Known about the structure:
This protein has 336 residues and is of the alpha/beta class.
Amino acid sequence: MLIELIGEEKIISIAGMAKNSGKTVTLNRLLEEAFDSGKKIGLTSIGRDGESVDLVTETEKPRIFLERGSVFASSEGFLSLSDASIEILKNTEFRTPMGNVIIAKVREAGYVQIAGPQLLSEQRLLSEDMLRMGADLVVIDGAIDRVSQAAPTISEGTILATGACLSRDIKKVVERTGQTVEALSLKSAKAPGIRGLGEEEREFIVVEDVAGKAEVLPFASALNSAPEMIRAIDEKTSYLYIPGSLTRYTLEKLVSSKFIRDITIVVKDGTKLFIEPMFWKKYLRMGLNFRVLDEIKLLAVTVNPYSPNGYFFDSIEFLDKMRKRVPNIPVMDVML
């Protein structure tokens, strides 16, 4: 059961690999298990969810049902679209295109539409508010094709939803999901020099040598800074820390350095890696080492074998292949 995998965590997120990956179905399964176990739920979303018809594909969507006592976040413009009886608890200062984000409590069970702020820092504050208002567990419903809410500064654990919508080729879906799981599961780096810096200094690229001495470079982004990073590393370099996104474009430049294979490349967390599966495997075979400052707790992977484009995978085969690709993470089809 999903609720058992969460354990004592208070704020968790559900991230979708893409639209129609089964994220809302996973959410509803988690909500049902939480209600059955007696947990009071707090629910927010990066974007909008809970509508009966998808606004992009015009296909039917699963709605979101909340039991009495639950709290949830929605914008002013969407509150009236919920058929649950609610009590407004707080009008926040967080803005959406449909008005301020409101925190409401369900007085009589029913279907709701949720809509929260786009800024992750605001999502964290919103989640903490709901915990103070009586929620035992807050769930952040993630945006389409975005796993940034999995960052440990936002949520304490993450469930990743994937599905046939990614590709008609089951092998490509399994491999792409596997690479994402590997990135989100990267272990932390010791890097005493980097960890000893202040938060403001860690907003820049940092080079640390074998003695633990950290040198802060005057670059916040790695995108056009590869030449400077290459000049800054040598045979005494132990860690290269990149604060923002790390892309294939940057790595293709860095691999020209003869020292790069002896260096551990560190990013803030696994959501900062943007590398296609084929190239990810290439860099691992080359011997590149990747670590993070903050580990992500990946709780489970859920799989959806159906695509709204009219094709589907064999459910058992898909589940079996995914479990073999990510053997260290629980994988489940919540509809089986």
